[in-house]
Amino acid sequence: MGPPRSGLVRALVTGASSGIGRETAKLLGAQGAEVAVHFHTHRAEAEALLPELRTGGRDPFVVGGDLSDREQVLALAAAVSGRWPELDVLVHNAGSYPRRMFRELTDDEFEACFRTNVYGAATLTRALLPLLDRSGSARIVFVSSILAFTGSRHGAHYAAAKAALLGLARSLARELAPRITVNVVAPGCVDTDILSDDSPEVRAERERAIPLGRIARPREVAEAVAFLASPSASYLTGTTLHVNGGLRLE
Ligand SMILES: NC(=O)c1ccc[n+]([C@@H]2O[C@H](COP(=O)([O-])OP(=O)(O)OC[C@H]3O[C@@H](n4cnc5c(N)ncnc54)[C@H](OP(=O)(O)O)[C@@H]3O)[C@@H](O)[C@H]2O)c1
Questions:
Q1: Mean pLDDT per 10-residue run, the chain (250 residues)?
Q2: Would 230 be classed as within a structural domain?
Q3: 190 belongs to a structural domain
Q4: Is the terminal CB of the chain with fewer CB neighbours within 10 Å at N or C?
Q5: Residue ranges making up the domain that contains 67
Q6: CA pair distance 226, 13, nearest whole angstrom
Q7: What is the pTM for the complete model shown?
Q8: What is the tally of structural domains in the chain?
Q9: Distance from the CA of 72 to the center of ligand 1, in angstroms?
Q10: Distance of CA 191 to the CA centre of its chain
Q11: Closest CA to 31 of 217, 243, 226
């Protein structure tokens, strides 16, 4: 690792148009970073973040792209490379959790889930490596899931994809050391659109199972991401920070 950062920190947060990514973009911005706010379908929500990120002479911007589409991922990387000479923080937060029983899951759906949740992040990382290398002390943070460890009752494809991110992150932690750290945040249940299909009964059942007694606020996961992206996490790489209210204990 290089020395602690002193100049402007540039951070790309994928899936920053809502939920955990939105809170992460806001928090990194509040901590002084210049943020590239990535969105897929919700451009207006991403743009709505810009005024609060624009203080102090910073020039945040939005950047779109479907992470399941390789060409769009490369275009996204090109857009960031066109704006910034280097990148200090790359947060792979975008993801989707299409509920489906394994018996009914098609091969195409399985592959689509991997394209969105894994391939896009891998391609984006590789395309942005020249920028990350130039930072001297860059941080990559992947947002995985508790389901990578526990499995899912109705999302084998999603749990497998989130587990694949662990292998990717740990491998990159080795390969990109010492200049770039690579870590993972594994949230439990977080109050975002991803849980919006829950009935009140399912929500209550979720809460009963969590020792801390409630579903997490997106900001609580963002705090963990921001910590791993900060100089305070200078000796952490290849690790996973579990943010699950005690739902799963090591
Ligand atoms: N909420 C939870 O309980 C929970 C638990 C464990 C892990 N996670 C993980 O946390 C991350 C954030 O999820 P969230 O809960 O904050 O959900 P969310 O509010 O639904 O946000 C998902 C974000 O990902 C983007 N996205 C979805 N599909 C995409 C695609 N094909 N290409 C590019 N971007 C795409 C969305 O963009 P648009 O809205 O612009 O389309 C949105 O910004 C995900 O990786 C999720 O798997 C969530």
A1: 68 98 98 98 98 94 98 98 98 95 97 98 98 96 98 96 98 98 98 87 92 97 98 97 95
A2: yes
A3: yes
A4: C
A5: 10-243
A6: 11
A7: 0.97
A8: 1
A9: 17
A10: 16
A11: 226
